[in-house]
Amino acid sequence: MADNVPKIRFPGFTEPWEQRKLGELAEIVSGGTPATSNPEYWDGTINWYTPAEISEARYVYGSQKKITEVGLNNSSAKILPKDRTILFTSRAGIGKTAILKNDASTNQGFQSIVVKNNIDP
Q: How many CA atoms lie within 13 Å of 53's alpha carbon, on the beta-carbon side?
């Protein structure tokens, strides 16, 4: 059996594996935190995740804390698209993952994987 034909198959998958670099399939996006001392940046409508919120759930729908558009624009946080983003914790609680079901942002404790449009996360 060739090296690129797996012994365990997924239903409906019959072709050999194709080795790809992650950067060909997705973009890695870091998070950011608006200044906590500025109340204009907080209690808005934009989901903003911290690693502590990522548990064993496969999907996440809403964060505990929210930031404002002003907070987003005055930090390194970015909007991550729903159904295309895999949150990946890179700090305390390292290695936990969840798929976004609503657009969101994260703090710097993440290296999120945003897959290209034709990829299923």
A: 21
